[in-house]
């Protein structure tokens, strides 16, 4: 646990709750379902992404998954401004 009180366990709980809502949303659910085929891997990547931000674990994404977040989102992703406002 770092000084913020945020841990990977907290991030995991938040991401699971977030994606639980996304998956049943009538607009966002189908959009994510088209792109995410392995939800456990996706959740692990997202927890590690937020760990990078919140816990300043800069090397985790590269070491664990060999990824750069901006490269993970396809250029043809069909998320509109209206869709992104639903999750704020």
TrEMBL record:
Gene3D superfamilies: Globins (1.10.490.10). InterPro entries: Globin-like_sf, Globin/Proto. This is Uncharacterized protein. It comes from Marivita lacus.
């Amino acid at each position: 646990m770092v000084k913020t009180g945020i841990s990977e366990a907290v991030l995991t709980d938040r991401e699971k709750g977030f994606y639980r809502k996304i998956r049943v949303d009538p607009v966002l659910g189908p959009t994510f379902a088209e792109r995410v085929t392995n939800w456990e891997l996706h959740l692990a990547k997202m927890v590690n992404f937020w760990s990078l931000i919140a816990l300043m674990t800069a090397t985790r994404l590269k070491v664990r998954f060999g990824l750069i977040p901006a490269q993970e989102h396809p250029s043809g992703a069909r998320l509109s401004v209206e869709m992104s406002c639903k999750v704020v």
